[in-house]
Amino acid sequence: MSSITMARKAFRIIPPRKSPKAAKQLLSYDWPGNVRELQNVVEYAVALATENRIDVDDLPEELRTTIPKPQISGKILSLEEVERNYILTVLEKVGGNKTKAAEALGIGIATLYRKLNSYNS
User: Fold this and answer.
1) What ranges make up the beta strands (E) of the chain?
2) Cα(8)–Cα(4) distance, rounded to whole angstroms?
3) 116: Cβ–Cβ under 8 A, 6 or more apart, which residues?
4) 21: exposed, middle or buried (C-beta count within 10 Å: 0-12, 13-18, 19+)?
5) What is the rounded CA–CA span in Å between residue 31 and residue 46?
6) N or C: which end of the chain has fewer CB within 10 A?
7) How far apart are CA 52 and CA 46, in angstroms?
8) Are the CB atoms for 33 and 20 separated by under 8 Å?
9) Per residue in 60-103, pLDDT tens?
10) Could you tell me the pTM of the whole model?
11) Could you please report the per-residue DSSP string of 70-89?
C-alpha cells in the first residue's frame, strides 16, 4: 500500500481530482522514469494541491512547461497545409491585420504576402 493511500485512510482525506489541464499535461508527458516517476509526481502534486483539486500549478516545473504532443485525428495533413491553416487562423485572430499577423508569426510582411498570394493561386 502506498504512503498516500495509508495517509488518506488514516486522516480520512478525500483524494483530489485533476483539472482537465493537469490531466492533459500528465497524459502528454513522455514519462522517461515510467511508473515510479509518475507516482512521485502525483505525490508531489497532492502535497501542493491547496484545494481538493490538482491543477497544472501543482505539477513539477518540467511537467508545467512540457508542450503537449499534437493529437492527430482524421486525415494527416501535409506540412504545407498545416502552415496554410495556421497562417490563415492567425490572420483571422488579429482581425485581418497583415502587419500584426506577420509579427505574431515571426516572419516578414513580404513573406506573409507571398504565402497569401500562393494560397489564392
Assistant:
1) 17-18, 53-54
2) 6
3) 87, 91, 98
4) middle
5) 18
6) C
7) 9
8) no
9) 888 877 776 667 778 898 999 999 999 999 999 999 999 999 99
10) 0.47
11) PP--SSPPPHHHHHHHHHHH
